[in-house]
Write a structure and sequence with these properties.
Length: 508
Protein backbone atom coordinates (compact mmCIF):
# COMPACT_ATOMS: atom_id res chain seq x y z
CA UNK A 1 0.00 0.00 0.00
CA UNK A 2 2.83 2.41 0.83
CA UNK A 3 4.53 1.71 -2.48
CA UNK A 4 1.30 2.17 -4.44
CA UNK A 5 0.63 5.47 -2.69
CA UNK A 6 4.10 6.69 -3.59
CA UNK A 7 3.58 5.74 -7.23
CA UNK A 8 0.31 7.60 -7.51
CA UNK A 9 1.50 10.64 -5.57
CA UNK A 10 4.80 10.97 -7.40
CA UNK A 11 3.61 10.23 -10.90
CA UNK A 12 -0.11 10.86 -11.01
CA UNK A 13 -0.68 8.31 -13.78
CA UNK A 14 -1.57 4.67 -14.08
CA UNK A 15 0.70 1.93 -15.41
CA UNK A 16 0.95 1.75 -19.18
CA UNK A 17 0.62 5.49 -19.80
CA UNK A 18 2.57 7.36 -22.48
CA UNK A 19 6.33 6.97 -22.10
CA UNK A 20 8.41 9.54 -20.27
CA UNK A 21 10.38 12.17 -22.17
CA UNK A 22 14.03 11.48 -21.37
CA UNK A 23 16.80 13.17 -23.35
CA UNK A 24 20.58 12.86 -23.44
CA UNK A 25 23.02 15.12 -25.29
CA UNK A 26 26.54 13.71 -25.31
CA UNK A 27 27.82 16.82 -27.12
CA UNK A 28 27.30 19.01 -24.05
CA UNK A 29 29.73 18.50 -21.18
CA UNK A 30 28.48 19.86 -17.86
CA UNK A 31 31.09 18.68 -15.37
CA UNK A 32 33.12 15.81 -13.96
CA UNK A 33 31.97 12.86 -11.90
CA UNK A 34 32.72 13.33 -8.20
CA UNK A 35 33.74 10.01 -6.62
CA UNK A 36 33.21 11.08 -2.99
CA UNK A 37 29.48 11.18 -3.67
CA UNK A 38 29.68 7.41 -4.09
CA UNK A 39 30.93 6.37 -0.64
CA UNK A 40 29.57 4.20 2.16
CA UNK A 41 29.88 2.96 5.71
CA UNK A 42 31.07 -0.42 4.44
CA UNK A 43 34.50 -1.66 5.39
CA UNK A 44 36.46 -4.81 6.17
CA UNK A 45 36.21 -6.45 9.56
CA UNK A 46 39.09 -7.60 11.71
CA UNK A 47 37.73 -11.14 11.74
CA UNK A 48 35.67 -13.07 9.19
CA UNK A 49 36.50 -10.86 6.23
CA UNK A 50 37.50 -13.16 3.38
CA UNK A 51 39.07 -12.19 0.10
CA UNK A 52 35.67 -12.80 -1.47
CA UNK A 53 34.11 -10.19 0.81
CA UNK A 54 36.90 -7.73 0.04
CA UNK A 55 36.37 -8.31 -3.68
CA UNK A 56 32.63 -7.73 -3.28
CA UNK A 57 33.22 -4.51 -1.38
CA UNK A 58 35.69 -3.29 -3.99
CA UNK A 59 33.33 -4.18 -6.81
CA UNK A 60 30.81 -1.53 -5.71
CA UNK A 61 33.36 1.17 -6.49
CA UNK A 62 33.10 3.29 -3.35
CA UNK A 63 35.62 6.07 -2.85
CA UNK A 64 35.73 6.26 0.94
CA UNK A 65 34.51 4.54 4.11
CA UNK A 66 33.03 6.23 7.17
CA UNK A 67 34.04 4.62 10.46
CA UNK A 68 30.85 5.13 12.47
CA UNK A 69 29.48 1.98 14.19
CA UNK A 70 32.60 -0.01 13.31
CA UNK A 71 33.03 -0.88 16.96
CA UNK A 72 29.69 -2.73 16.75
CA UNK A 73 30.81 -4.62 13.65
CA UNK A 74 33.98 -5.92 15.27
CA UNK A 75 32.85 -7.69 18.45
CA UNK A 76 35.43 -8.15 21.17
CA UNK A 77 37.67 -5.58 19.47
CA UNK A 78 38.39 -2.06 20.69
CA UNK A 79 38.20 0.04 17.54
CA UNK A 80 37.44 3.61 16.43
CA UNK A 81 35.40 4.89 19.39
CA UNK A 82 37.27 7.39 21.56
CA UNK A 83 36.81 5.46 24.80
CA UNK A 84 38.05 2.28 23.11
CA UNK A 85 41.28 3.99 22.07
CA UNK A 86 41.63 5.94 25.34
CA UNK A 87 39.98 3.69 27.94
CA UNK A 88 41.12 5.30 31.22
CA UNK A 89 39.84 8.84 31.35
CA UNK A 90 41.86 9.81 34.43
CA UNK A 91 45.14 9.40 32.51
CA UNK A 92 47.04 12.10 30.63
CA UNK A 93 45.71 12.44 27.06
CA UNK A 94 48.94 14.10 25.88
CA UNK A 95 50.97 10.92 26.44
CA UNK A 96 50.86 8.26 23.70
CA UNK A 97 51.36 5.36 26.12
CA UNK A 98 47.85 5.94 27.47
CA UNK A 99 46.19 5.13 24.13
CA UNK A 100 45.32 1.75 22.65
CA UNK A 101 45.46 2.14 18.87
CA UNK A 102 46.41 -1.38 17.75
CA UNK A 103 43.06 -2.81 16.55
CA UNK A 104 42.01 0.46 14.91
CA UNK A 105 45.40 0.67 13.16
CA UNK A 106 44.87 -2.79 11.73
CA UNK A 107 41.30 -2.09 10.64
CA UNK A 108 42.13 1.19 8.92
CA UNK A 109 45.18 -0.34 7.27
CA UNK A 110 42.98 -3.05 5.75
CA UNK A 111 40.50 -0.41 4.60
CA UNK A 112 43.19 1.67 2.91
CA UNK A 113 45.41 -1.04 1.47
CA UNK A 114 43.23 -4.08 0.87
CA UNK A 115 40.02 -2.27 0.04
CA UNK A 116 41.51 0.87 -1.48
CA UNK A 117 39.14 3.25 0.31
CA UNK A 118 39.99 6.57 1.86
CA UNK A 119 38.97 7.12 5.48
CA UNK A 120 36.26 9.43 6.80
CA UNK A 121 36.86 9.22 10.56
CA UNK A 122 34.00 9.74 12.98
CA UNK A 123 35.35 10.99 16.31
CA UNK A 124 33.10 9.89 19.15
CA UNK A 125 31.08 6.77 19.83
CA UNK A 126 29.01 4.17 18.06
CA UNK A 127 25.28 4.14 18.72
CA UNK A 128 24.11 2.58 21.99
CA UNK A 129 20.71 0.88 21.97
CA UNK A 130 20.52 0.19 25.70
CA UNK A 131 17.14 1.73 26.41
CA UNK A 132 15.88 5.04 27.78
CA UNK A 133 17.60 5.06 31.16
CA UNK A 134 20.82 3.01 30.94
CA UNK A 135 23.76 4.56 29.08
CA UNK A 136 27.48 4.02 29.28
CA UNK A 137 29.41 4.90 26.12
CA UNK A 138 26.90 7.42 24.81
CA UNK A 139 26.66 9.56 27.94
CA UNK A 140 27.60 13.19 27.55
CA UNK A 141 31.31 13.40 28.52
CA UNK A 142 32.08 15.07 31.79
CA UNK A 143 35.23 16.84 30.56
CA UNK A 144 34.88 18.40 27.10
CA UNK A 145 38.48 19.63 27.04
CA UNK A 146 39.76 16.14 27.83
CA UNK A 147 37.77 14.55 25.01
CA UNK A 148 38.96 17.27 22.63
CA UNK A 149 42.53 16.39 23.58
CA UNK A 150 41.83 12.71 22.90
CA UNK A 151 40.49 13.64 19.48
CA UNK A 152 43.66 15.64 18.82
CA UNK A 153 45.80 12.70 19.92
CA UNK A 154 43.92 10.42 17.54
CA UNK A 155 44.54 12.74 14.58
CA UNK A 156 48.19 13.13 15.58
CA UNK A 157 48.60 9.34 15.64
CA UNK A 158 47.12 8.75 12.19
CA UNK A 159 48.48 11.78 10.39
CA UNK A 160 51.78 12.62 12.07
CA UNK A 161 53.10 9.25 13.23
CA UNK A 162 52.69 10.06 16.92
CA UNK A 163 52.65 7.10 19.29
CA UNK A 164 54.17 4.70 16.74
CA UNK A 165 51.47 5.82 14.36
CA UNK A 166 51.08 6.62 10.69
CA UNK A 167 51.24 9.43 8.16
CA UNK A 168 48.05 8.65 6.31
CA UNK A 169 46.84 12.22 5.74
CA UNK A 170 43.26 11.38 6.70
CA UNK A 171 41.48 14.54 5.67
CA UNK A 172 37.96 14.37 7.13
CA UNK A 173 37.25 14.18 10.86
CA UNK A 174 33.69 14.30 12.15
CA UNK A 175 32.76 15.37 15.67
CA UNK A 176 30.24 12.91 17.12
CA UNK A 177 27.16 11.38 15.48
CA UNK A 178 23.45 12.11 15.94
CA UNK A 179 23.61 14.14 19.16
CA UNK A 180 19.92 14.83 18.56
CA UNK A 181 19.12 11.11 18.84
CA UNK A 182 17.46 10.70 22.23
CA UNK A 183 18.64 7.86 24.49
CA UNK A 184 21.18 6.64 21.93
CA UNK A 185 24.00 9.07 21.22
CA UNK A 186 24.29 12.14 23.51
CA UNK A 187 22.60 11.11 26.72
CA UNK A 188 22.03 12.82 30.02
CA UNK A 189 23.05 10.76 33.07
CA UNK A 190 19.44 10.13 34.13
CA UNK A 191 18.06 9.72 30.62
CA UNK A 192 16.69 12.05 27.98
CA UNK A 193 12.94 11.45 28.39
CA UNK A 194 10.68 13.81 30.29
CA UNK A 195 9.96 13.08 33.95
CA UNK A 196 7.14 14.26 36.20
CA UNK A 197 3.88 13.30 37.87
CA UNK A 198 1.63 14.62 35.10
CA UNK A 199 1.77 14.66 31.33
CA UNK A 200 2.19 18.44 31.39
CA UNK A 201 5.16 18.14 33.71
CA UNK A 202 6.71 15.38 31.61
CA UNK A 203 6.39 17.36 28.40
CA UNK A 204 7.85 20.47 30.05
CA UNK A 205 10.76 18.43 31.41
CA UNK A 206 11.29 16.81 28.02
CA UNK A 207 11.60 20.21 26.36
CA UNK A 208 14.00 21.36 29.07
CA UNK A 209 16.18 18.29 28.64
CA UNK A 210 16.23 18.60 24.87
CA UNK A 211 17.31 22.24 25.11
CA UNK A 212 19.97 21.32 27.67
CA UNK A 213 21.31 18.50 25.51
CA UNK A 214 21.56 20.78 22.49
CA UNK A 215 23.24 23.60 24.44
CA UNK A 216 25.79 21.18 25.86
CA UNK A 217 26.53 19.70 22.47
CA UNK A 218 27.03 23.10 20.85
CA UNK A 219 29.59 23.90 23.54
CA UNK A 220 31.26 20.51 23.04
CA UNK A 221 31.37 20.91 19.26
CA UNK A 222 33.02 24.33 19.42
CA UNK A 223 35.48 23.14 22.06
CA UNK A 224 36.59 20.20 19.93
CA UNK A 225 36.64 22.17 16.68
CA UNK A 226 38.86 24.90 18.14
CA UNK A 227 41.24 22.41 19.72
CA UNK A 228 41.68 20.37 16.55
CA UNK A 229 42.04 23.33 14.20
CA UNK A 230 44.63 24.93 16.46
CA UNK A 231 47.02 22.00 15.98
CA UNK A 232 45.82 20.70 12.60
CA UNK A 233 44.68 23.66 10.48
CA UNK A 234 44.81 21.66 7.25
CA UNK A 235 42.44 18.82 8.14
CA UNK A 236 38.71 19.19 7.59
CA UNK A 237 36.61 19.06 10.74
CA UNK A 238 32.85 19.24 11.07
CA UNK A 239 29.71 17.35 11.90
CA UNK A 240 27.66 16.46 13.79
CA UNK A 241 25.69 13.98 11.61
CA UNK A 242 22.23 14.97 12.79
CA UNK A 243 19.46 12.39 12.43
CA UNK A 244 17.73 14.11 9.53
CA UNK A 245 16.96 17.54 8.11
CA UNK A 246 13.83 19.26 9.35
CA UNK A 247 13.27 22.97 9.53
CA UNK A 248 9.91 23.42 11.26
CA UNK A 249 9.69 26.76 13.02
CA UNK A 250 8.63 25.22 16.30
CA UNK A 251 9.19 21.88 17.93
CA UNK A 252 5.92 19.99 18.30
CA UNK A 253 5.05 16.93 20.32
CA UNK A 254 2.60 14.08 20.10
CA UNK A 255 -0.57 14.48 22.10
CA UNK A 256 0.42 11.46 24.19
CA UNK A 257 3.19 10.97 26.70
CA UNK A 258 6.76 12.05 25.95
CA UNK A 259 7.71 8.43 25.27
CA UNK A 260 5.87 8.78 21.94
CA UNK A 261 8.09 11.74 20.93
CA UNK A 262 10.02 10.91 17.77
CA UNK A 263 12.81 12.22 15.60
CA UNK A 264 10.45 13.90 13.21
CA UNK A 265 9.69 16.59 15.78
CA UNK A 266 13.23 17.91 15.95
CA UNK A 267 14.05 21.21 14.35
CA UNK A 268 17.40 20.21 12.92
CA UNK A 269 17.97 23.37 10.90
CA UNK A 270 17.67 25.26 14.20
CA UNK A 271 20.23 22.84 15.63
CA UNK A 272 22.63 23.63 12.79
CA UNK A 273 21.93 27.32 13.19
CA UNK A 274 22.88 27.11 16.88
CA UNK A 275 26.14 25.36 16.02
CA UNK A 276 27.07 27.80 13.28
CA UNK A 277 26.20 30.81 15.45
CA UNK A 278 28.43 29.51 18.24
CA UNK A 279 31.25 28.86 15.75
CA UNK A 280 30.96 32.42 14.45
CA UNK A 281 31.05 33.79 17.98
CA UNK A 282 34.14 31.69 18.73
CA UNK A 283 35.78 32.78 15.45
CA UNK A 284 36.21 29.24 14.18
CA UNK A 285 34.73 27.79 11.00
CA UNK A 286 33.58 24.19 10.51
CA UNK A 287 34.77 22.69 7.24
CA UNK A 288 31.52 20.77 6.78
CA UNK A 289 28.13 20.04 8.25
CA UNK A 290 26.63 16.55 8.06
CA UNK A 291 23.24 14.91 8.49
CA UNK A 292 21.30 11.72 7.71
CA UNK A 293 18.24 10.53 5.83
CA UNK A 294 16.17 7.35 6.17
CA UNK A 295 13.07 7.42 4.01
CA UNK A 296 11.74 6.87 0.51
CA UNK A 297 11.33 10.29 -1.12
CA UNK A 298 14.34 11.44 -3.19
CA UNK A 299 12.91 14.95 -3.46
CA UNK A 300 13.10 15.36 0.31
CA UNK A 301 16.80 14.55 0.18
CA UNK A 302 17.50 17.03 -2.60
CA UNK A 303 15.45 19.77 -0.93
CA UNK A 304 17.47 19.34 2.27
CA UNK A 305 20.71 19.77 0.33
CA UNK A 306 19.53 23.07 -1.11
CA UNK A 307 18.34 24.28 2.29
CA UNK A 308 21.67 23.31 3.88
CA UNK A 309 23.56 25.27 1.24
CA UNK A 310 21.40 28.34 1.78
CA UNK A 311 21.73 28.10 5.56
CA UNK A 312 25.54 27.91 5.48
CA UNK A 313 25.73 30.80 3.03
CA UNK A 314 23.33 32.94 5.06
CA UNK A 315 25.27 32.23 8.26
CA UNK A 316 28.53 33.38 6.68
CA UNK A 317 30.08 29.99 5.88
CA UNK A 318 30.07 29.80 2.06
CA UNK A 319 33.00 27.38 2.02
CA UNK A 320 31.36 24.94 4.44
CA UNK A 321 30.91 21.60 2.69
CA UNK A 322 27.72 19.54 2.82
CA UNK A 323 27.92 15.84 3.65
CA UNK A 324 25.04 13.37 3.81
CA UNK A 325 26.84 10.56 5.55
CA UNK A 326 24.10 8.12 6.43
CA UNK A 327 21.20 7.40 4.13
CA UNK A 328 19.11 4.38 3.24
CA UNK A 329 15.72 3.61 1.76
CA UNK A 330 13.09 3.06 4.46
CA UNK A 331 9.43 2.54 3.62
CA UNK A 332 8.20 1.26 6.98
CA UNK A 333 8.39 2.25 10.65
CA UNK A 334 11.65 1.57 12.46
CA UNK A 335 9.90 -0.90 14.75
CA UNK A 336 9.02 -3.16 11.83
CA UNK A 337 12.68 -3.54 10.80
CA UNK A 338 13.37 -5.46 13.99
CA UNK A 339 9.97 -7.15 14.33
CA UNK A 340 9.83 -10.90 15.03
CA UNK A 341 6.30 -11.18 13.62
CA UNK A 342 6.54 -13.47 10.55
CA UNK A 343 4.00 -11.46 8.57
CA UNK A 344 5.79 -8.20 9.26
CA UNK A 345 9.17 -9.71 8.48
CA UNK A 346 7.93 -11.03 5.13
CA UNK A 347 6.65 -7.56 4.23
CA UNK A 348 9.89 -5.87 5.28
CA UNK A 349 12.37 -8.33 3.80
CA UNK A 350 10.70 -9.69 0.66
CA UNK A 351 9.12 -8.25 -2.44
CA UNK A 352 9.92 -5.25 -4.65
CA UNK A 353 9.53 -2.69 -1.85
CA UNK A 354 11.56 -4.60 0.74
CA UNK A 355 14.30 -2.89 2.73
CA UNK A 356 17.05 -3.88 0.27
CA UNK A 357 14.87 -4.78 -2.74
CA UNK A 358 14.50 -3.29 -6.21
CA UNK A 359 12.67 -0.16 -5.01
CA UNK A 360 15.47 0.38 -2.49
CA UNK A 361 18.10 -0.12 -5.19
CA UNK A 362 16.42 2.25 -7.64
CA UNK A 363 16.01 4.80 -4.84
CA UNK A 364 19.79 4.56 -4.42
CA UNK A 365 20.46 4.93 -8.13
CA UNK A 366 18.15 7.94 -8.27
CA UNK A 367 20.10 9.67 -5.52
CA UNK A 368 23.55 8.63 -6.75
CA UNK A 369 22.59 10.14 -10.12
CA UNK A 370 21.09 13.36 -8.75
CA UNK A 371 23.91 13.94 -6.24
CA UNK A 372 26.45 14.42 -9.03
CA UNK A 373 24.93 17.72 -10.16
CA UNK A 374 23.82 18.92 -6.72
CA UNK A 375 25.39 21.15 -4.07
CA UNK A 376 26.28 18.06 -2.00
CA UNK A 377 30.01 17.41 -1.53
CA UNK A 378 30.06 13.86 -0.18
CA UNK A 379 27.59 11.06 0.55
CA UNK A 380 27.99 7.84 2.54
CA UNK A 381 25.42 5.11 2.04
CA UNK A 382 24.47 3.19 5.19
CA UNK A 383 25.52 0.26 4.35
CA UNK A 384 27.68 -0.53 7.29
CA UNK A 385 27.36 -4.19 8.23
CA UNK A 386 28.22 -6.37 5.23
CA UNK A 387 25.75 -9.14 6.10
CA UNK A 388 22.18 -8.60 7.27
CA UNK A 389 19.66 -5.79 7.34
CA UNK A 390 22.18 -2.98 6.81
CA UNK A 391 24.40 -5.02 4.53
CA UNK A 392 24.52 -5.88 0.85
CA UNK A 393 23.83 -9.60 1.29
CA UNK A 394 21.79 -11.84 3.58
CA UNK A 395 22.98 -14.45 6.05
CA UNK A 396 23.07 -17.06 3.26
CA UNK A 397 25.51 -14.99 1.24
CA UNK A 398 22.87 -14.06 -1.34
CA UNK A 399 23.30 -10.50 -2.58
CA UNK A 400 20.46 -8.05 -2.13
CA UNK A 401 19.21 -5.97 -5.04
CA UNK A 402 20.98 -2.94 -3.61
CA UNK A 403 24.36 -4.58 -4.29
CA UNK A 404 23.74 -4.74 -8.03
CA UNK A 405 22.56 -1.15 -8.22
CA UNK A 406 25.59 0.13 -6.34
CA UNK A 407 27.92 -1.91 -8.52
CA UNK A 408 26.21 -0.54 -11.64
CA UNK A 409 26.81 3.02 -10.52
CA UNK A 410 30.36 2.30 -9.34
CA UNK A 411 31.27 0.88 -12.76
CA UNK A 412 29.61 3.84 -14.48
CA UNK A 413 31.49 6.38 -12.35
CA UNK A 414 34.81 4.64 -13.00
CA UNK A 415 34.47 4.29 -16.78
CA UNK A 416 32.70 7.54 -17.69
CA UNK A 417 34.19 10.52 -15.81
CA UNK A 418 32.76 13.35 -17.95
CA UNK A 419 29.13 14.23 -17.18
CA UNK A 420 26.97 15.17 -20.15
CA UNK A 421 23.69 17.03 -20.42
CA UNK A 422 20.51 15.02 -19.74
CA UNK A 423 16.99 15.62 -18.55
CA UNK A 424 13.73 13.90 -17.68
CA UNK A 425 10.31 15.50 -17.86
CA UNK A 426 8.73 12.82 -15.69
CA UNK A 427 8.91 12.65 -11.93
CA UNK A 428 10.23 9.26 -10.86
CA UNK A 429 12.41 8.89 -13.98
CA UNK A 430 16.04 9.94 -13.45
CA UNK A 431 18.82 9.95 -16.02
CA UNK A 432 22.54 10.62 -15.77
CA UNK A 433 24.75 10.58 -18.87
CA UNK A 434 28.52 10.57 -19.16
CA UNK A 435 31.40 9.64 -21.43
CA UNK A 436 34.99 8.48 -21.24
CA UNK A 437 37.78 11.03 -21.01
CA UNK A 438 38.54 10.69 -24.73
CA UNK A 439 34.82 10.73 -25.67
CA UNK A 440 35.14 7.39 -27.45
CA UNK A 441 32.67 5.67 -25.11
CA UNK A 442 29.31 7.03 -23.96
CA UNK A 443 26.75 5.76 -21.49
CA UNK A 444 23.66 6.65 -19.49
CA UNK A 445 21.84 5.21 -16.50
CA UNK A 446 18.07 5.58 -16.72
CA UNK A 447 16.23 4.79 -13.47
CA UNK A 448 12.51 4.26 -13.01
CA UNK A 449 11.69 4.58 -9.32
CA UNK A 450 8.13 3.46 -8.55
CA UNK A 451 6.36 4.99 -11.57
CA UNK A 452 4.46 1.87 -12.64
CA UNK A 453 5.48 2.26 -16.28
CA UNK A 454 5.91 -0.71 -18.61
CA UNK A 455 8.59 0.92 -20.79
CA UNK A 456 10.81 3.99 -21.06
CA UNK A 457 11.93 5.94 -24.11
CA UNK A 458 15.13 7.95 -24.35
CA UNK A 459 16.33 10.33 -27.04
CA UNK A 460 20.11 10.42 -27.59
CA UNK A 461 21.82 13.35 -29.31
CA UNK A 462 25.38 13.18 -30.67
CA UNK A 463 25.05 9.46 -31.36
CA UNK A 464 25.34 8.03 -34.86
CA UNK A 465 21.98 6.84 -36.31
CA UNK A 466 23.30 3.31 -36.66
CA UNK A 467 25.26 3.29 -33.42
CA UNK A 468 25.55 -0.04 -31.69
CA UNK A 469 24.66 -0.09 -28.04
CA UNK A 470 24.72 -2.55 -25.17
CA UNK A 471 21.92 -2.40 -22.62
CA UNK A 472 21.98 -3.93 -19.15
CA UNK A 473 18.81 -4.12 -17.07
CA UNK A 474 18.47 -4.15 -13.30
CA UNK A 475 14.96 -5.03 -12.14
CA UNK A 476 13.00 -7.28 -9.79
CA UNK A 477 13.99 -10.45 -11.68
CA UNK A 478 17.23 -9.54 -13.48
CA UNK A 479 20.63 -8.08 -12.55
CA UNK A 480 23.03 -6.82 -15.25
CA UNK A 481 21.25 -8.95 -17.85
CA UNK A 482 21.58 -7.86 -21.47
CA UNK A 483 18.36 -6.75 -23.16
CA UNK A 484 17.71 -5.81 -26.79
CA UNK A 485 16.50 -2.47 -28.09
CA UNK A 486 17.02 -0.72 -31.40
CA UNK A 487 17.96 2.90 -31.87
CA UNK A 488 15.41 4.48 -34.23
CA UNK A 489 15.91 8.12 -35.28
CA UNK A 490 17.98 8.70 -32.15
CA UNK A 491 15.36 7.20 -29.85
CA UNK A 492 15.61 4.05 -27.80
CA UNK A 493 12.68 2.25 -26.20
CA UNK A 494 13.76 0.41 -23.07
CA UNK A 495 11.42 -2.51 -22.40
CA UNK A 496 10.38 -3.42 -18.88
CA UNK A 497 9.24 -6.90 -17.89
CA UNK A 498 6.82 -5.61 -15.25
CA UNK A 499 5.65 -2.37 -13.66
CA UNK A 500 8.13 -2.50 -10.77
CA UNK A 501 11.09 -0.15 -10.42
CA UNK A 502 13.94 -0.77 -12.84
CA UNK A 503 17.18 0.74 -14.09
CA UNK A 504 18.98 0.49 -17.42
CA UNK A 505 22.64 1.06 -18.23
CA UNK A 506 22.91 2.02 -21.89
CA UNK A 507 26.44 1.96 -23.36
CA UNK A 508 27.54 3.20 -26.82
Amino acid sequence: MIRKSLMLAAVGIAAGAVNAAVTVDFAKDIGRMRPYLHSAGYGPQICSCSQKTLDELKSMGFKASRTHDWSLLNPNQRVCDYFQMFPLMHLDATKPENYYFGPTDYLLKRTREELGHEIFFRLGTSIEHSGPDIHFNSQIPEDFDKVAEIFAGTIRHYNEGWGNGHRWDIKYWEIWNEPDNMNCMWCLPDGDGGKGATKKERIADLKRREALRRDLFVKFFVTCLKRIKREFPDVKVGGPALCTWRDDKEQTYHDGTPSAWTRKHRNTSAYFRAILSACKEANVAPDFISWHYYGMNPDDVMTAIDKARRLCDEMGFPKCELILNEWHYRSRPWSELSSSDPKVRRAVWSGPDSHNGIDSSCFNLTLFSRFQTSALDQSYYYGCKNVGSWGYKNEYGEKYKVYYGMKMFGDFLRDYPVICSSSSDEKGITVIAAKSADSSRKAAIVTDYCTGRDSLSVRFDDVAPDAQCRILVHDYERDAETVSAKLVDGCLKLPKRDSNSAAFLVMF
